[in-house]
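Lab meeting minutes (informal)
Scribe: AK
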Amino acid sequence: MKQILHQNNFFIYTLILLPLFFTNILYVVASKHFEPIEIVELQSAGILPKGFFDVQTNLFTSGGVRMSFRLSPLKNINLGLSFGGTNIIGTGKVSFQNLPGVLLKFRPIDEKITFPAISFGFSTQGFGPYNYENKTFETFSEGIFAVASKSFTNFLGYFDTHLGINYSFEPRPKDRKINLFVGISQEMFNILQLNLEYNTTLADTINMKGKGLLNFSAAFWLTNNLCVGLILKDLTNNIKQRSNPERNLMLRYIGNFLPSKTSN
């Protein structure tokens, strides 16, 4: 009889405390908003605020792992380094990319009510396995890029649209050309971020079939500083070496290295 009473008390306390627990989590997570820095793989016009940094880990096909670090030492300027390889998880010979990826991103125009934010930059970090024979990533790095992003609000949160161009230096010189990409992002109550991007991959005749690369991601904020995400890459089956979409995982941490009063 006592055991039954204890069990009933446990369930009663659980029913009372569980909503309070989740309400507290929702309040903590929803109290902070970070604009999307990337759409899925490609850059948006978003910028880390001054004094902030982030560390991101991506797990991708062939046992691949990529680590990225970005910081914002000055307002509207982001610097980054990244490095990765394949067969780091699982079996087989570990193979790293040739050189670390670098990122320089500058936003000279902030978003206005009637005008988008515009960022320019340079990135040498590609995506997927690195091919030493061709000296290219499975998805080319962006190279020089320019991207515009505009935010709107709805009952779910922020809705962002993105339009960008880039010129990668990975293709052979005769194959290089301007590439286009577009994307959308929907934030849901500052907890969930859904992203969709289309990369035309116009310059890539080595790895792509010519249909363009459609990628989707969902990122869930566990706390103000930590989020986990699932990436579904190549929904159009555009990569020659793939017959199905690829599933990647992402873990991201955002921190502040300056006092809060100087990080705005």
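Next up, CB showed the second protein from the same session:
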Amino acid sequence: MLRTLLHTILPICIASVVYGMTLARKLLRLLLFTVLGGAVLSIALVLLLRWVDPPVSALMLERQLTAKISGQTYSAERTWKPWHTLPDHLKMAVIAAEDQLFATHYGFDVEAIRAALNYNEQNNNIRGASTLSQQVAKNTFLWSSRSWTRKALEAWFTAWIELLWNKERILEVYLNSAEWGPGIFGAEAAAQYHFNTGAAYLTNQQAYVLAAVLPSPLTRSAGQPSAATQQRAQWIARQVRQLGSSHYLNSLKPVHSEWLPPISEWLPIIKAKFES
């Protein structure tokens, strides 16, 4: 009877084990293909946005979704402005305020990250250490809430952005995607909203104030700056002078000539040829 039982149960057990191993192997293969496919698609998307201006950012979609879930009305304002139309003093103000080593690092400020980790261990509030490149990666592709998963993906996108884009393109995307108020995205919308003027016509002081509110654009106002915001704007002005505006921006230019210029430069040429 025992032999009969073994003859009956043993094949079933072996078959179950083999089936389980086969299923696990298939699931592992599916997971591997999914991860590789996602990686390839993300790299292709980063490469595409080297020349194509993103019509919307992940942060804009997140804000719209959050408002819809809470039953609130929400509209996002953004008008894309190419690199050559954005004022140099705004570019320098943002660099001085957010990432003074932007021209020399490869996407990550290691010393700032170490300092932030030490600070966060000793204090209840959290200090960030994201570079402009990391902020572009987060705002363009990811969600805003803090998590190790998001940080890992942010590092992935940041590495490819630094590899496939030049510094001018990174700063251009940042200035056209940064949040500067409720539903206000990009320098042009910010200039119109806070100062009733275009980004190209911002004064130095207005640019410094806009940069000063970037850490908390939803709680600080550039149009009606507090004393603390004005004090930070003055500090930014001093940092811009120390960095050297034109010299610093010249260091952002690509060392090698671009094999394909940005779409904002060659698309009007193609359009003109079709219309002629």
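CB comment: The chain has one domain: 52-275.
No objections, moving on.
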